[in-house]
Protein 1
Amino acid sequence: MLDKENIEKTNAWPFVEAKKILRDRKKNIDKKGKIILQTGYGPSGLPHIGTFAEVARTSMVVNALDYLTDLPKEIITFSDDMDGLRKIPDNIPNKEILNKNINKPLTKVPDPFGKFNSFGEHNNEMLKNFLNNFNFNYTFKSSTELYKKGFFNETLILILKKFDDIMNVIIPTLGKDRQKTYSPFLPICPTTEKVLEIPVKEINGKDNKIVFDNHGQDLEVCVLDGSCKLQWKVDWAMRWYALDIDFEMYGKDLIESAILSTKIIKILGKSNPTGFAYELFLDEKGEKISKSKGNGITIDQWLNYASPESLSLFMYQNPKRAKKLYHEIVSKAVDEYLNFIEKSKTQSELQLLLNPAWHVHKGQIPQEDIIMSFSMLINLVETSNASSKEILWKFVKKYKTNINEKNFPIFDKLVGYAIKYFNEVIRKTKKYIKPNDDQRNALNELIKKLEGCSNGMTPEEIQTEIYTVGKENGYKDNLRDWFKLIYQVIFGDENGPRMGFFISFFGLNETIELIKNKINNV
C-alpha cells in the first residue's frame, strides 16, 4: 500500500484528477456510494486511437482512485449511435450504401462491411473488441438502446419542461439563420427514418409531444421512447444527468460544448461532472486525427509494431499537450517505456508515482533487465539481415551469452516487433549517402582505428577511439557531424545508436566489414 503522505504530495495527473473528483463531487458520491466516469464515442466512423486514449486515461484515473477510496468505480463507455449519419468516412468500403442512408440514425444505416445489422453496431463491436483486448474494465451503453427502452424518458420530460430556459442558453451561441430552425429535440421521421433538424411550432407538455414544422407540414412527435433524440450539447448534459456522471474527459475542441452542457445540467437541477480537457492528436502533417479520414496511425498498426504498454505510456504522457501520432513515433515511445522501467528500479515511492510506467502497470512495474533499446534492436535487424525472431535471437546470443528468452519476455516481444517495424516502416525512410573523398578518408581512418582495437575493450573505450578519429579528421569543432556521417553511411539516417555500445555488441570485425561494404556499395 502506498504511503498516504506520498499520495498527497504527488502531482502525477491521474492522482490530481482523482483528488479533484473526490473533492468536487463529494456530496454526489456520498449519496450514491459510487464513482461513475464516462467516455464518449461517436460511431460515425471506425474507432481510432483517440477513442482508445480516453478509455486508457480514464482507467488511469480509476487506478489512482483505488488508492484513495474503497468506493466502487464504474467507467461507462457511451456510444452516441442514435446520431444521424452526416458524412461518408473516407476509409469505408461500399460508400453507395452509406450515401443512400445519409441522416438516418447510425443504428439504422446498413453495415457497409456486411457483418452486422447496422453501421453503428459494426463500429460499436469494433470498439468493444479492442477495449477488451486491453482488458479495460468498462460498461458499454448504447444511445439507441437507452432512448428506445425509455431509460432517458424522465430526463427528457424534465428537458421539455425546461425548454425555454435551455433555448435561452443555446440560442445566443448560434448564427441568425440557425436560430430560426434550432430545436433541442430532433424528431425521427416516421416515413424516412431520418433524424430531422426542423423548427418547433408548438409544445404539448401535458402529453410530452412537440409539433414540428416539417417543411410546411405539421409533424407531431412524442419525445419519449426513441421517437426523438437530443441535439449534441443538450444530449451530453442529459447523459450527465441521467447516468449521474462524476468525471469525463474530452478533447479541447469540445470545451465550448462542455461549457454549454454545464449550464444545461444546472438548469435541470444537478451539478456538472469534473471535466478534463485534453489536447488533440495530430498526424505527421499537423492535422487533427479524424475517424472519418482515417489519418495517423491506427491501433492495429501500433500493436503490429510495439507493445500495448508502449501505447498506454504514450497516452499517459502530457495529455494537455498536442501530440503528433504517426508511424515513426512508435520506436521513440518504446524506448521511453524501456527507460522508465529501468529508472523505476532505483526510484523512491514518491518518484515512482511520477513514473509513467507505474500508471501503465497499475503500480506493478516489471523488473526485467533491459538488454538494449528498441532503436538499437532495429539497427541490428538491418545490419544482421535477420528475417525472423529465431535468427535475430541467435545473433543476440552470439554476443550476449547465457541469455534465455524465457527470462526476458519484454525483450522477446521486442525482437519480433523490431523485424516488422524495420521492414514495414523504417526501411522506406532510409537515405544512405555516398561519402565524398574527404569523408571516405575519414571513414577509412575509422576502419584502421577499429582494426587496432580489441574485443576486450569496453563500449566507452571504443567510443573514445571513435571520437579521436573524428577530431583528427576535420570534425574537432563539430563531432555531431562526424557521427551524423557514420549514421548516414551505415544506417541511412541522421541519428543512430551510441557507436561504442553498438560495436561492442555487433562485434569489431563485423562492424569493420559493415563499414567497408557501405562505403563500396552505396
Note: The domain at 437-521 is CATH 1.10.10.350 (Arc Repressor Mutant, subunit A).
Protein 2
Amino acid sequence: MDVLQSTINKNSKTFKANYEGMSSLLEQLKAYQEESRFQGSEARIKRARNNDQLLASERIQLVLDKDSPFLELMPLAGLGVDNGFGANGTTIIGIGLVSGKLCMINSNIGTKKGGTMDFSTTKKYIRMNEIILENRLPCIQLVESGGANLPDQVRTFELAGANFREITRRSEAGLTTISVVFGNATAGGAYVPGMSDISVFIKDKAQVFLAGPPLLKMATNEIANAEELGGAEMHSSISGVSDYLAADEVEGIKFARQLMTTIEPSKPHFIPSDFIEAPKYDPDEILGVVSPNIRIPFDVREVIARITDGSKFLEFKPDYGKTLVTGWAEIHGYTVGIIGNNGVLFSESANKATHFIQLCNRNNRPLIYLQNITGFMVGKEYEQGGIIKQGAKMINAVSNSKVPTITINLASSYGAGNYAMNGRSYQPNFMFAYPNSKVSVMGSEQIAGVMEIIQRGKAQRAGVPFDEEKFAPTKADIIEKNEAVSSSWYASGHLWDDGIIDPRETRNYLGFCLNVFNNKAINGTQTYGVFRM
C-alpha cells in the first residue's frame, strides 16, 4: 500500500485556528464526561461506604482483567434529556476483558436514584443488547436497581420489558449472562438476575423480590420482612434464584471472573501480528485538520493518514467520483475498507461506493465510514441524470451489506447523505462522533431558508407583501433551535451515537472495535435488493 503524503502546514493560520477551536470543544467534552461520572450525592455514597459497598465504577475495575482496556459506551446518554437523571443515566455500560474474554459489562449505579431506570437508561439497555447479539459477547450484569423510574413509567415500561426479553434471547443464542446482585433488585429489577444464566447474590446485601414488604402488605395484607421475601440466603437455599452465595462484594466479583473461565472461548476470525506499525503522522494533528466550523472543508485523506498503520492507504478509483474517497488500509493490524466524504455526493461517487461495498463484502472486510456530508447533489441536470437512482443503489448496498461497520461523524451528517454514509438508522455496529459534528435533515440556514420561501409563497398567494422585518426573529429562532438539536451533545444525549470521542483517539477506538468484530467469523454477502439501472 502507498503511504499517504500529508500536505498540512502546522504553522498555517487555518491549522492553528482549527486546533484551538477543537481543543476548546474537547474541554467541553471533558466537562460533560465528568458530569457522566457522577455516582450520587455525598450522603448516598457515604451510606454505601458505611455498608461496605463499592461504587459502580469500582465494581467494573475489579471484574476487569488487570490492564484491560474498557470501551465505555453511551456515556453521555441522557445529557439534556427532559425529566431524566442526567448524563449516563443510572448505569455504566462497556466492553472489556474478563478472564481473557471480551465481555459486555453493565454496572448499575445504585448510589444514583437507587439505580432506577429512567428513559435514557432503558434505551442504553436496548442498544447494549444489540451490540451483544451482533458481536456475540457474553455479559456480566453488576446489579443494584430499583427497577423502572415510576414517574417516568409511561416512557420506560415497554423498553424495560424488551430488555428482559433480550436476556433470554441472548441465552437462546448461546451468549451467557452472569448477574452479581449487590443490593436491591426490586420489581422489574428482579427479572435481571431471574432471567440470567447464572446469578450470584451477596450475603446480607442482595434483596430480590417482585414486591417489597410495603407493597406486599398493601396488595395481600401479608406481613413479611425483606429477608423472608428476597434475601440472599433465602434465594440461595430455598427459591434457587441465586446459584452462588458470596460473603461480600469482592467474593461475588471473584465468582463472576471464575465463571467466565467456564464459557467456551471465541474462535477469532483473525489475529493480527505482534508488530503493528504506527501512523507516520501524529494523530494529535487531527485537531488542526478538522475544523470546529463544519462549513470549512478538509481532505478526509488527512484524517486517514493519521489513523492507519504506517499511514498507508490503497485508494480505489482515485480518479473517479472524487467527492468520495474509498480504499483499503490496516488499522492495528486489521484490514478494513474505508469510505470517506470529500464533498457532496454525485452519481459517480454513489456508483463508486456501491462497487466498493460489494468488493469488501466479497472479501469479508469490515467497513469504516467517515462522515462529512451535506447530502446528494441537486438540480435539474442531476435529477435528469438519475441522482435518485444512483443514490438508491448506494443506499441499497449500505443497507444489505453484511460485514461489520463503524461510522464516525467527523463534521456534518445531513439528510440522505447521512443514510448513504451508514447513519444510525442503517445500524452500524458502532457509531461515534467528533465534538464539532452535527446531524440533521439539513443545515440550520437551509431549514430557515425553506421556511422563508414557504412564507413568501403564502404571502404572494394572499396578495399581500411579505413582511421581512416581522419574519426576521422567526428565522433567527428557527436557526437557533435547529443548531441546538443538531449538535453532537444533543445527538449523543439522545443515543444517536455510541459516544463522542476525542479525535486523537480515533485509531484506538477503531482498533478496539475491530478486535470485537473479529471475536467471531466475518461473512460478507453477495446478495442485495434490486439495483435500479
Note: Residues 13-36 form the longest helix (24 residues).
Protein 3
Amino acid sequence: MAQIESSIATGTDAFRETRAAMLDQLARLRRVEERSRAASEASRPRFEKRKQLLPRERLALLLDPGAPFLELCTLTGYKLDNPDPEKSVPGGGIIAGIGFVSGTRCMIVVNDSGIDAGALQPRGLDKQLRMQEIALENRLPYVQLVESAGANLLAYRVEEFVRGGNLFRNLARMSAAGLPVVTITHGSSTAGGAYQTGLSDYIVMVRGRSRAFLAGPPLLLAATGEVATEEELGGAEMHTTVSGLGDYLAEDDRDAVRIARDIVGKLDWNRDLPSDAREGKVPRYNADELLGIMPLDTKRPVDMREIIARIVDDSDLLDFGERYGSATICGHARIEGYSVGIITNNGPIDAAGAAKATHFIQACCQSRTPILYLQNTTGFLVGRMHEEAGIIKHGSKMIQAVTNATVPQITLYCGASFGAGNYGMCGRGFHPRFCFSWPNAKTAVMGGEQAARTMTIVTRQALKRSGKDENPTQLEQLERKIMSNFEGQMDVFTTSAHVLDDGVIDPRDTRQILAFALSVCRDSERKQPQSMQFSVARP
C-alpha cells in the first residue's frame, strides 16, 4: 500500500483564506452560468402560448431520471457576445453534455431557442464541433434537439459560414462510424441548418411546429417569386408524408421526446457491453479540503500529492521513479475502481522529469492504462545548466509521447498552465479525451509579470542600440499594459469562454467527474459499432 499522508493544516489562516477565495470563484461561476437559464426562462410566455416546452424542460424529459448528466462548456462565449461582462450570456446558445437516455449513454446537444430564437451565438459553432468530436472519439450515440433561427445574419462572418460545414461533415461521419444520430426537430431548421435535420438517421417532427426548408418563404419569394406558407413549404406533415424527410410525427414536444427515448431504447446499444460493476474505496481525506489547498496566486507552491490524496481511491498512489526528476510526479492509482496513471508537477519540469514522464506515458500505453494530467506548472526549466542537460531534447520526447499516446488522456487544469508546460502536460491543443478546469486555473504562454519584465528588457536593449535615452514612465506604462493584457486572457472565465476546456468544475466534484469520464473512455474502448463506408441515406 502507498497511502499519501496529508500534512495540510485546515485550521490555519492561509487555508481559510484560500478556501474563501475558491468559494468566491465558484459563486461567480454559478452566477454567470445562471444567466443562460434566466435568459431562456424569460421566453416562457412565448413558449407557453405556442404550447411548447422550454429547451431545458425538453432535456429533462429526455434524460433518465436520477442518472448523471455531465453538462459541458457552460461558459462558452462569455464576454464574447457582449463586451459588458455583466450583460454577457454564456453557453453559445447551446445546452450540451453527456447523459443517459433509456439506459444508453449519449451525447446530447440542445438548441436553446429561448435565447435569440436559438440563433447560433459567438463560439457556439466551436462548442457544437467539440461535442461532435467527443461523440466520435468516445463512440457515443448523438441526440440533438433542434430549434434554431440559424446563423445570425447581423453578425455574419464568412469564415464561420465555411467552418460551419464541419458540423454537417461530422454528422455524416458519425453515421458512417455506426453512431446513430437521433434528431427531434422542435421548430425551425432552415437553410444550411436544414441539413442538421437531413443528415440524421432518425428524425422526429412535431405537428404544426417543425419547419425544415432550404429557403424560407421570404427568401423563396425574393429568389424565385414563388409564394408558399411555412407549413406548405416545410411543415412536419408534408415532410412525414410527401418528402420523406421525417420518420416520426409527434403531436407535441412531450410526445416527440417520448418517441426519441423509445428510438434510443430500441437500439439496444449496450448489448455488447459486459457488466461493469466497480467499487472504489473513498479517499481518506475530505474532498471539501480541496477548496483550501490550491491558492489563486500561482507563485505559491502546492504539493500536488495533497490534491491526489483527495481524489483517488483510499488516497493510494504508487509513485513511479519517485526520487528521479522528483518535481514531476508520476504514479498509478484508481478512481472509483478505474485504473489510471497520474502525471503532475511540484514545480517546473526539468530534463529528468520530462524523461521520466515520457517513460511513464509509454508504460501506460503498454498496459492500456488511461492517463490523467493534473496541470500546475510554470513550464520547463530554462538556463545554461538545463540546456546542457538536454531540456529541449527531453521536453520534445515528452511532447512526442503525449501526442502519440494510444490510451485515453484526461487533463485537469488545477492551477498554473504556463508555457510549453501546457503542451507537455497534454493541454487542449493535444486533444485530450476530456479537459476540465478548476475556477482558479490560469493559462498563458508565461506569467504576466514575466512577460512584462521580458518586454522591458527587450525595449531597453533596443533603446541602447539606437542611442536613445530610457523613459521610465513609458516603460512603466508598457509593463502595466502587458500585465493587464496577460491577466485578462489567462483567467479561466476567458479561456473557457473560448472553448479551451470542456467546462469549469467545482474541485469537490473532481472525483465523480473524473470517474464519469473514465467510464466513458472504458465503454468506448469496448464498444465496436458497425462502421460503414457511407452514412445512412434517407429514402
Note: The chain has 20 helices and 15 strands.
Protein 4
Amino acid sequence: MKYETKLALQIFTLGTIILAIGLFTAYRYNSRAILQHELNHTELVVDAVSGNFEQLLLEKVKTNQTLSITPIINNALITSNCTFGNLSEKERNEKIYLQNEQWKATEDEKDAFILEFTHNSVAQFLKEQQNNLKGEYGEIFLTNKYGALVASTAKLTTFAHAHKYWWKGAYNNGLGAVFLDDRGYDNSVDGYVLGVVIPIKEENKIIGMLKVNLNILGAISEMILNSQNETAGDFKLIRSGGEIVFERESAPLSTRIPNLLYKKLQSIDEHSFQYDDSDNKWLIGNSEVGITSKDAEGYLFGGSFESVDHKKGNTGESWHIINSRNLATILEPLKDSTLIILAVGFLLIIILAIVAFIFGKLAVNPLKQLIEQSKKIAKTDFSARIVVSRKDEIGLLGKAFNKMAEELEKTTTSLKKLESSEQKILQQNKKLQDLNATKDKFFSIIAHDLKSPYSSMLGFSGILYNEFDDYDTQEQKQFIKIIHSELQNAFKLLENLLYWSHSQMNTIDFYPEKENLFLISQETIGMLRLSAINKSISLINEIPKHIFVKTDKNMFAVILRNLVSNAIKFTPKQGTVEVAACTITNKNNQEYAEITIKDNGVGVLGEIQSKLFDISESTSTRGTENEAGSGLGLILCKEFIEKHNGKIWIENEMEKGSKFIFTIPIGS
C-alpha cells in the first residue's frame, strides 16, 4: 500500500474512532446531565402545580368560610341551638330521631315539613350563593351543633347528620377542623364533588356546621390543562390509592395509573424519578397536595362510604399531582444535535483524509528518489547519490544518505582488498575443486545422454533424407515417430538440465504455499496421460482430495512429472502406474504427506539404487521400449524435495516393479 494512501486511511480510521468515542462520551455525559436537570425541573414544576392546586382549594375554603360567618347564618344557628338546647338530652335525641324518620319517609319535596327547611330565609340565602356561582355548587346546607338540619338548598337524604363521618371529622372532638369530603361522583350535580365542611364557632365553641358540595371538576380541569404543554408534559390528579381523579379525555375515577408505576410511587419518597414501562421510558413527577395530607394543620381530608347520591368516595386517601414526560422526547434535541455533529465531523474527517493523501503524495516524492538510490546501494552500486534541494528533515536525510554512500564506497574498496586473504583463497580453491569434479561428471552424463537421442535422430533423419522414396508411408511414419520420441527425450533432458543448473546457482524462486495435493497431481498427471495411453498403461490417481501440503507448486509439478514419466517409461504395455498419498506423523509430532508412485515395470538393480540420487554416481538407463533416460531427473527431484525439508527413497523388487516414495510437509 502506498504511503499517501496508508496515511489517508490511518487519519480516516483514527478520526472516525476519535469522533465515535467523543460523541459517545459526550452523549452519555450530556444525557445524564439533561436527565438530572429535567428531574430537578420536573420536581419544581410538579410542586408548583401542586401548590397552585392547594391554593385553589384554600380559596374555595376561604370563600365558604366567609359565607359561614354571615349574620343570617349565625342568627339561625343561635335560634335552632336554643330550641334544641332547652330540651333534655333524651328529649332532644328523641325529637331529632322522629324528625329524621319523618324526613326520610316524606318523598314530596313540597311537603310543609320539607319546605320548612328548604324554603326558609337561610335556605333562600344559600340558594342565592348557588345562583351567583352557577354550576360550581351542589347542595349547601346548615346543621346546628347537635347535627339537626337548619336549612338546605334541596331535600337531603337525611335530617340528622351528627353521626356522619364528615360531621364528626369537622367537629374534631370539639376543636373544629375544616373537613374536605372527597365524595367522588355526585348525582346531584352530575359531576365530581368535593364537600367542604366548615365548623362555625362562637367564643371558640362550635355552634353549627356549614357543608358546601363543590362541583370541583371544572376548576381542576382548567388549572391542570392550563399547566400542560409540550415542554411541561402531561399532568394528572390522582388519589394515593392509584385512582385517577382527573386526566384529559377520561371520566373521573374511571381508570387507574399502571400497577408498576403505583408500586414505584409507594416505594420511594422522591418527587421525581425515572420510570420504565414495557414500551417507553418516562420522567415522573409526584407531589402531594398539602391540604389533603394527614399532616395538614386545621384540615382533614377523606371520606368513608358511598351514599345513594354519590359513588366512589374517598377512603382516607390524599390527592397527588402526577407529571409524566417521555424521556425520548426530552432527549430528542440532544440526539438531533449529536447526529448533526456526527455528519459534520465525518465530513471533516473525509476532507482531512483527502488533504493527508495530497500532502502525503507530495511528501513521498523525495522518498521515492531515496528508495531508488537505496536499491542501487543494495546492488553494490555505491556511486548512487541524491540531489538535495530541501532544507527540512528530508533534506537532512538526503545529505546523511550521500554521506553513508561515500563511506560505503570507501569501505567496499578496502574490503575488496581484504578478500585476497589466504583463508578465503583456500575456501575458494576447495569449492572450485568440488565444482570441477561435479562439472566433469555432469558434462560426462550430459554428453553420454545427449549422444544417444541425437545419434538416433541423425541416423533416421539421414535415412529419410537419402532414401525417402525407398520406404513406404508406414515405414516413414515409424522413422518420424522415432525421431519425435528422441526429440522428446532430448527436450526433457535439456529441461532437467536447465532446472538443475538454476538450482545449483540458487536462481529458482521458492515460494511454498498451502496447496491441495489432489488438484496439483490431477493437473500434472493429466499432462502425461497421452504417453500412458500410447503404451496402453493404466495411469491411476488415488490421492485423497482432503490433503493439503505446503509446497512451491511449480517445483512439486517438476518432482511429480519426473517420477510419473519415469514410471511410465519403465512399465511394459498393459501395465499400471498408481499415484497415492497418505499423512504421517514423525517422532517430533510433525505432519507430512507421503506420496507413492508405484509401477509394475522391470525394477531397479540393487547396485544401482544407491546411485540414483547422486550426481557423482548417476548412470543412464533405458525403458521398456528403449527410451533413453538419465539420473538427472531423479537428482533434481531429490534437490527440490530437500528444499521442502522432505525425503525421497525407493522400494524395489526386480521384475515386479518399483515404488518411489517422498514426503512433503502438511500445509498449515
Note: The chain has two domains: 39-346, 420-668.
